[in-house]
Structure formats: C-alpha cells, structure tokens
Design goal:
Blueprint (H helix, E strand, L loop, with lengths): L1 E5 L6 H10 L7 E4 L17 H22 L6 E3 L10 H5 L5 E3 L4 E4 L4 E6 L2 E2 L8 E2 L7 H7 L5 E5 L22 H10 L3 E4 L7 E5 L2 E5 L4 E8 L9 E11 L7 E9 L5 E5 L2 E4 L2 E4 L2 E2 L6 E6 L2
Parallel strand pairs: 1-2, 2-3, 3-4, 6-9, 7-8, 9-10, 10-12, 13-20
Antiparallel strand pairs: 1-14, 5-6, 11-12, 13-14, 14-15, 15-16, 15-17, 16-20, 17-18, 18-19
Helix pairs in contact: 1-2
C-alpha cells in the first residue's frame, strides 16, 4: 500500500499544486491530510461567538476547502483527514456535499484495504496562543471515546493533528524549546500500539521518529523553512532552505517492513527536487541505508531530476 502524506496546508494552493504535479505519475492508494487547511482565520474563538462572525469565518473556510480538495481530486485517490486547530469543527455536513471522495476521521474509524486496516483520527490541538477555533484540554475526557474504540483494532494507524508529547523533536517548538504535543496521544500510542502515527501541527518538528514502538511521522507544514543538508551540490551553502515537503509511506499486509520517504522541492537560484533515503521500521529499529539511524530532525536529501 502506498500513501501520500501532506502536512498543514494553510491555504497554500500554489505549493499544494506543486506536490500534486510531482505525485501525478505515482500509483497511490490513499492521501492522508493532517489538518489546518485554512489560512489563519481572522476570527478566533472570542470573535466567533455571534452568528454573524461565525458565518463570515464559515464562508472563508468553505471557499478554501473547496479549492484545496478540488485540486487534490485531480489525483483521483481517496482522502482521509482530520481537522486542525485552525479549522472550523462543526462543518462536516456542508463540506461533504463537495463529494470529493473524502472522509473525515474525528474520533471514528475507517476500514480500507479490503477491510484489513483501520484508520482512526482525532483533530484539533491542545491550547495555543493563537486561540484557534478547534482547541481542547489535554485530558482523558477528551479522548475517552477514542479509548473505547481502540481495544479491538489491529492493525491500525492513528492520524492526529497534534503529535505525541515528549518526543525528541517532533513536538518541540523552536521559540522556547517546549514540548507542545499531547500527553493523551502519547498514552494512546503506549496503550493501544498503532503501527503508524501521522501528525502535523508543529511545523518546525517535521520528521520521523520511533515513539513507544510506533513509527511517527510529523508532516509539519506543507511549505516553509526547513533544515536540510544538500550533498553533491554547490548551489546552496546553508542548511536552512525553503522547502515544499511531503511523505510517501509504503507497507505490505504483513507490516514486516514499513518504509517512509521524505520528498521536497527547494526554492533557490533554481528549483531542486529532493528525496531523502527511505527509512524502514525493521525489528523495532529505524534503519536507513542498512544502518540503524540516530533520532534526529536533520534530513539528508539527495538531488533528484525534476
């Protein structure tokens, strides 16, 4: 099975179009989106309590979603997604009339791949200074419904907008260096053993990690500055570049080998298509090029022809 994973889009249609173009010749089985489709809405929680401002926010959100999913529909692949903290929570009925082969995972499961594999999703995030429309208290009560669903799910993949807490880098914000992930998401991983966890939310924490035995992919933000090391190239002298990024996850029914590859497009004197060497989860270790790799947020990219 081959899955395209795209992080927080924030209404960046131009760069999303680049990903669609780069993936147009791939045989994909599914697209997973981690939420935060909208740009920063001009309406925070205190401002959308009355019906007029809520309708204004809803119209903005609907327009942005329509454009995003119309573009992704050109890949002709089913999509599953969760809400982000910048998305409106109570919007599903109107949105799904768009009929773009899209499924919202919000505390519920979806079986795919001949009903062999379950995807479970949980949207929103813990409280942030931005006061987004979909934020919650990180408590067992928030996740109680999910806990009750997971006991009999095997194998399964968790899609959570918010990453697990206390990771080495996936949930760490650069400004203060705090762990901004969810303790409850971490508890779910430890207790119910998903094969893979797919997240977003912490833009600067984009990368791959092994957390309590699960392969965790933080897709970060679709486009933004990233730490990269470009070998065999004299074009880029610094290790900070503006990158459009996406991930490709592949596995078979046995789940003996989970492979994930990070792809990117770098802006600069000329665009470069990049791909990191695939990372495999094998016998409980992350392996790259045959070697067990240290957990790190840095990515070594190889050059690819566009």
């Amino acid at each position: 099975m081959r899955i395209l994973i795209i992080g927080d889009i924030h209404n960046d249609l131009e760069h999303l179009g680049a990903v669609v173009f780069m993936c147009s010749n791939l045989e994909l089985d599914l697209i997973v989106l981690t939420g935060d489709f909208a740009d920063f809405l001009p309406h925070t929680i205190p401002q959308i309590k009355n019906s007029r401002t809520y309708r204004a926010a809803e119209n903005i959100y609907y327009t942005q979603l329509q454009a995003i999913f119309k573009l992704l529909a050109t890949l002709n692949v089913p999509i599953v997604y969760v809400h982000g903290n910048h998305d409106l929570r109570f919007y599903d009925e109107k949105f799904h009339k768009l009929a773009y082969n899209v499924d919202l995972l919000s505390g519920n499961e979806k079986y795919i791949h001949n009903n062999f594999l379950a995807f479970v999703g949980f949207g929103g995030s813990t409280y942030t200074p931005f006061r987004g429309p979909y934020e919650w208290k990180d408590s067992i009560h928030t996740f109680l419904e999910i806990h009750q669903k997971l006991a009999n799910l095997k194998p399964w993949i968790l899609i959570s907008h918010c990453p697990p807490k206390w990771c080495q880098f996936l949930d760490v914000g650069y400004i203060q260096g705090n762990h901004l992930g969810s303790a409850q998401v971490r508890e779910i991983i430890a207790e119910f053993s998903p094969k893979v966890v797919i997240t977003g939310h912490i833009h600067e924490g984009s990368g791959i990690d092994l957390v309590d035995g699960a392969l965790v992919i933080n897709a970060g933000k679709l486009a933004g500055y990233d730490r990269v090391e470009l070998h065999d190239s004299s074009i880029y002298k610094e290790n900070i570049a503006q990158v459009i990024k996406w991930f490709i996850l592949e596995f078979d029914d046995s789940f003996d080998n989970l492979n994930v590859q990070r792809h990117g497009l770098v802006f600069g004197p000329r665009p470069l298509a990049l791909k990191a060497n695939p990372i495999t989860l094998k016998n409980g270790e992350l392996v790259q090029n045959g070697d067990i790799i240290p957990v790190t947020g840095n990515v070594r990219y190889g050059l690819d022809d566009i």
